[in-house]
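Hi C.,

You asked whether I'd gotten around to modeling the 118-residue construct. I have! Everything is below, sequence then structure, no commentary in between.
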Amino acid sequence: MLAFIAALAPFVRTVVALGAVFALAGAVWAFVIAAAYPRVVQLGSAMGVGAITGIMGVFSALATTIGPPVAGTAMDVFGAEAMFWVSAAAFLLAWVSLRKAGKIERAARAVDTGRLAV
């Protein structure tokens, strides 16, 4: 859905309409963050949820700050298609990180219950 909204941006001709497209994209992103929060709570203990939420905020802000210059530089050096390759690489990194977090979580549960991690 977010990609569909972003795909509309080049076809918008007025500043007001572009603002509306970005507002809609922001609302959709809010749903993404709200859906990710239960996973954050799962990964943290009752006392660590605040710290993990803060870490999530820091990395979200870093992605927002670093992503556009990296994608823009890649586009300048390699052409417009590079933006999609940079995005695909970022997605792959996020996916691998979440998979690793899941393995760490399962291992921690196994240690807590006295079972070996599978």
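If it helps when you're writing up: The chain has two domains: 1-43, 46-118.

Thanks,
B.
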